[in-house]
């Protein structure tokens, strides 16, 4: 059917509407803490949906259907692990975050191990988030750039310029409501964006059932027979070894997903910032646990779209990452195409706005305020906070621009950046909340060793990516324990 001017109008109305809605709901801020954490408690269900929207990038929206199209729904084993991980986050981490009114995730590290390690962990978060979300921003600009090509905004041969226009447009529009409304604007815009991209997924399912021959029951039965709806893989074909080299097995999915979720939702300021907006531990716990359940259902929807796409177009020669995008552009009716593309942009803007806010808050709370000799007035601190938001938006835009024209394999490598650092971050957080006395120097050694070990595991072993974070966390804890034991031995020998 193709993309029409009506679809373009739907997208424009959505983009302008979400920016206006975010600014309106953000209200007026009075201080840096209000700007980054919200002095007004945010309802638990809104915190829950902003967690879900934040972790759902445009890549998730477009690529998960391709997973089921090319295979089955065993990815849901990982989503099951996410639920287990969030239960542990609610039990272990969240009570500590509300003990003493912490302002970032890394303030917890300072309470146990000092300001130096707090700033080191915060810096690792910043670098990881900058590159990981810079790639996500670039990937999201791809469909927008294709639309600009479709309407011949620029002559042929100006691909780089079209991508720069797309990236700049998305960044500026997102920055508008982040700058004006702070974390409350980000959260409420996320709620609206979650609704839009879920509607897009549901609309795609309805259209696919309409296009496919036969009734829905018969179609589902055929998918079951073909193995497309298989959700559990107890043992891969290559036996026990495959449990550690195949990403989507029951053990790898549940255990690896649980540990990964503990790292991403318990140590990453991107998520912790939203948790703190609940202002009390009980609603924060409720939001965290329900976010896992909603993500499981959401992933089921995306994967089910992929299974239906296989029934609609089983051509094995097509790229799995392109199959949903091609369907959106060529098969959805006018209006719905615009809605689903708006859903893609919604997922992108949600991730981008969350990154800008989280990076700004970590910079302000972990570096600027603690290192100043004299405290800033609330009004001046708010101005600095907004300037930091602008600065990080520019850096994310520039990072995304670095990937223009990059081969897909390099993009996938950049998207795995978090795997290098999540293990180390989770390791030091576990050392921070568990009993036992660890010296700061020993924990820093463990942190560095964990990141190095993660890099070696990723680059030099066939271990599946679902095991990267558990391996990195284990290496961090082991190295910290060993360094701490050696320091204690050295101290005893010196005294003797």
Indicate the low-confidence ranges by residue numbers. Answer: 407-415
What is the chains' assembly state? single chain
Put simply, the count of helices is: 20
Taking all residues together, what is the mean pLDDT?
Answer: 85
- Major sheet, described briefly? none
The assigned structural class equals: mainly alpha
What helical percentage do the residues reach?
over 70%
Shape: globular
The proportion of residues in beta strands is under 5%
- Provide the succession of SSEs: HHHHHHHHHHHHHHHHHHHH
Query: What's the number of extended β-strand segments?
Result: 0
Separation, N- and C-terminal Cα atoms: 83 Å
Radius of gyration: 23 Å
Descriptive terms for the model:
single chain, 496 residues, mainly alpha, 20 helices, globular
Could you characterize the architecture of this molecule?
The chain is mainly α and 496 residues long. It has 20 helices and no strands. α4 (58-70) packs across α15, α5 (76-97) packs antiparallel against α13 and α15 (336-371) packs across α16. The chain is 78% helix and 0% strand. The protein has helices spanning 5-26, 32-37, 44-55, 58-70, 76-97, 107-113, 115-150, 159-211, 216-225, 240-245, 250-266, 269-276, 281-312, 323-331, 336-371, 378-402, 408-415, 417-433, 440-460, 468-495.
